[in-house]
Amino acid sequence: MRPERRTQLGLAGLYVACVAAALALSALLIALTGGPWRQVLSALLDGSIRQPGRWGGTLAEAAPLLVVALGAIVATRAGLVNIGQEGQLAVGAACATFVATRNSGPVAVVAAIAVGALGGAAWAGIAALLKYWRRVPEVITTLLLVFVAAQGTGYLLTRQFLLLDRDPNKPNRVQTSGQLDPDTRLGSIRAFGNEFPITVPIALVLTLVVALVLSRSVWGFRLRMLGLNARTAQRAGVSVVAAGAAALAISGAMAGLAGSMMLAGGSANHRYTPGFANNVGWEGLLVALVARNRPLVAVPIALVFASLRTGSGFLAATGVEREIVDVVRALLVLALLLPPALVAVRRRRATENVAEPLPAPLTIGATA
Q1: Cα Rg for the chain, rounded, in angstroms?
Q2: Does residue 367 carry a pLDDT above 50?
Q3: Residue 173 and residue 170: Cα distance in Å, rounded?
Q4: Are 320 and 30 in contact (CB under 8 A)?
Q5: Which of 94, 95, 117 is nearest to 249 (CA)?
Q6: Distance between alpha carbon 194 and the CA centroid of its chain, in Å?
Q7: Strand partners, 190
Q8: Which pTM was predicted?
Q9: CA gap 217, 195 in Å, rounded
Q10: Which residues pair with 188 in a beta bridge?
Q11: Residue 124 and residue 250: Cα distance in Å, rounded?
């Protein structure tokens, strides 16, 4: 058996073992709290795939996760760590809401989605500016900007001239935006008794585009050079500032695009609400990590994460406490993150052992 084939089988076996261990721990935890522990796997499958109409909802959840993951992959290829997708998605969705609630029609939909992408790019651009102007690490700024975005978008929902619903006949007991008009929404596709928004094929097309650009274009080659060694890339003629800032802005634009697509596709009943991102930014980043920054591999990984999101609702419906459901999801996500982490540690140790210099041979000097 070839070494590559053996490695792939070993990785697959490691995934199976980790997921099985996570399910066993979940069943034990549910049993200790008096819940129906035998229904853990069955409820997850029913809620995500097996019940009528469920896999359409899973596809709808997978689309924004995949788009966010694509942005994270672009930044990582350039050697940058963007972990602020949750805030960039919220800002993008808020910008799209501002445009979509004041206009209507197909042109307004396209404009809102484009403005959402620009909003996410601008929010990530703040981190790029601080990195290349003041040398502030982007891993810190992108993370801190998540909390700024949460507070800022929350304020937008307190003023009617910004995002708060302006309907005079509706009391604003809950701070939400106005609902998008029916002609200011993305369409949906019906197939085999399921319905999912048109954002699903859009996400797949974006995946192919990103995969081709990163692997077949000159710009993608420059990004790989920058990610491997910034000094060498600069000597080869790559502008570190321009390429790095562009990669970080594109990463934010993808997160903002995911937020605007969620809004136009039907999330939160076509309204912007507090907590609209709903951890999609964080989980999209995890999708990129599990896929090891490979765009095409991110497609099935996004489906798995989306299945956990949709299936957890059925698990809660069986009588399991909501807090326990969150723990079960966390255990399964951890099970998906462990195998690539273990493989990376093993490869690093192997590289260190190979790179370790051999001791100098003993020589016996000649005696006079």
Answers
A1: 24
A2: no
A3: 9
A4: yes
A5: 117
A6: 24
A7: 195
A8: 0.91
A9: 36
A10: 197
A11: 8
Cα→Cα distances 31→40, 53, 113, 141, 324, Å: 10, 30, 45, 42, 11
DSSP state string for 193-207: TEEEETHHHHHHHHH
DSSP label of 237: T
> Whole-angstrom Cα distance, residue 362 to residue 346?
32
Closest CA to 302 of 66, 76, 35: 66
Tally of helices (H runs) and strands (E runs) in the chain: 13, 2
> Dmax of the chain from CA atoms?
109
Domains and CATH numbers, the chain: 62-318 (1.10.3470)
Paired tokens of 120: 């996410």
Q: What is the pLDDT of residues 158-175, one digit of tens each?
A: 988 899 988 766 665 578
Tokens linked to 306? 């989306």
The C-alpha atoms of residue 4 and residue 27 are separated, in whole angstroms, by 35
Let me know if 76 is exposed, middle or buried by CB neighbors in 10 A (0-12, 13-18, 19+).
buried
Q: Please state, in angstroms and rounded to a whole number, the distance separating the CA atoms of residues 334 and 126.
A: 31
In Å, what is the CA distance from 68 to each residue of 13, 222, 273, 294? 28, 22, 20, 13
| Paired tokens of 198 | 């048109």
Cα gap 71→210, rounded to integer Å: 9
Q: Which residues does residue 196 pair with via DSSP β-bridges, in sequence order?
A: 189
Amino acid at 21: A
The H or E element containing residue 60 is helix 54-77
Give tens-digit pLDDT for 119-148: 999 999 999 999 999 999 999 999 999 999
Please tell me the distance from the alpha carbon of residue 296 to that of residue 198, in angstroms, as a whole number: 19
Q: Contact at 8 Å (CB) between 98 and 295?
A: no
| pLDDT-above-70 percentage for the chain | 93
Please give the Cα distance from 207 to 209 (Å, whole number): 5
Give the angle subtended at the CA of 240 by the CAs of 237 and 241, to the nearest 5°: 130
Contact 185, 203 (CB under 8 A): no
3-state secondary structure of 349: helix
Burial of 168 (0-12, 13-18, 19+ CB in 10 A): exposed
Tokens at 65, concatenated? 């996760």
Distances (CA, A) of 43 to 50, 202, 208, 304, 321: 9, 29, 33, 15, 14
For residue 343, give the nearest of 300, 292, 283 by alpha carbon. Answer: 292
